[in-house]
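Whiteboard transcription, Tuesday session. T.W. wrote the structure tokens on the left side:
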């Protein structure tokens, strides 16, 4: 009996770091009502209340993914760990899964499933962030996101079913990484100002070019900065939706050569196929939105 239950208890045990992270989140939550809820600063694109609320959503989703990986145990470890890491950085997850596939060839399919799970987590995270920033944007993006998510999810589950084995998720991690959140916050602010400047200087073409360029770095920050422009009436909903899709596509596409550079060829081929499926589903969904 102890052999069947003890590992799960160990993984799910509350640690000192868990308690610290919980206190940090509560402290951040207490700050929210104290912040002004209005646009301010240069170009009037920064709202302290909306910005802080966004960071709270980031912390909460990261913690949720972390606990999902902790509680699911070793059998689905790579899928759970990949999904959790995707809330923070799917690029980091792909790099980690590439290393596992390189060091342990029998887990190649499991590692590829974990990488795709990270992409799914990243997409769920992006949807939540866009909804938090401006729920109206999501109405025109529902079909593209659904077209990307469902086939990719089926592909990830197929890879997991084919996998021979999987590793135990990390029980010594943190619910969220404040350094990464700080970098994300800085990117959102910088991208918002840069995009606003380009829109005012070059119009729609400037924002779309900015979305492609910044999407290569961080799809989440790009999407939020574009949503911020829509809320501030710096651009319209249709252009904002197109810019978000372009930024997301650029971010997904750049991961394909990264998988070939970092991981063994069988792993990279499986991940590249999944990413290609995701991008195709994204734009097929957008095509349906235009036709309808």
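and on the right, the sequence the group agreed on:
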């Amino acid at each position: 009996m102890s052999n069947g239950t003890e590992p799960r208890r160990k993984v799910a045990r509350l640690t000192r770091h868990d308690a610290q992270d919980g206190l940090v989140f509560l402290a951040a939550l207490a700050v929210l009502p104290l912040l002004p809820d209005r646009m301010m600063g240069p170009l009037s694109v920064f709202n302290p209340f909306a910005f802080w609320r966004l960071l709270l959503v980031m912390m909460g989703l990261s913690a949720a993914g972390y606990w999902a990986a902790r509680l699911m145990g070793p059998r689905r470890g790579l899928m759970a760990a990949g999904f959790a890491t995707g809330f923070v950085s799917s690029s980091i997850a792909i790099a980690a899964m590439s290393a596992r596939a390189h060091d342990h060839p029998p887990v190649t399919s499991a590692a590829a499933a974990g990488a795709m799970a990270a992409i799914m987590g990243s997409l769920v995270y992006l949807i939540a962030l866009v909804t938090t920033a401006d729920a109206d944007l999501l109405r025109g993006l529902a079909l593209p996101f659904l077209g990307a998510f469902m086939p990719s999810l089926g592909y990830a589950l197929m890879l997991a079913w084919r996998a021979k084995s999987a590793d135990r998720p990390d029980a010594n991690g943190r619910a969220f990484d404040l350094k990464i959140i700080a970098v994300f916050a800085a990117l959102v602010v910088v991208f918002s100002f840069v995009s606003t400047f380009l829109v005012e200087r070059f119009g729609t073409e400037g924002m779309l070019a900015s979305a492609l360029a910044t999407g290569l770095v961080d799809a989440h920050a790009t999407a939020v900065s574009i949503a911020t422009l829509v809320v501030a009436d710096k651009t319209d909903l249709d252009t904002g939706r197109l810019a978000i899709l372009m930024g997301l596509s650029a971010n997904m596409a750049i991961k394909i050569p990264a998988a070939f550079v970092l991981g063994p060829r069988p792993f990279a081929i499986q991940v590249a196929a999944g990413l290609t499926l995701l991008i195709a589903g994204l734009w097929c969904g957008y095509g349906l939105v235009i036709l309808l």
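Someone added at the bottom: The first helix runs from residue 2 to 12.
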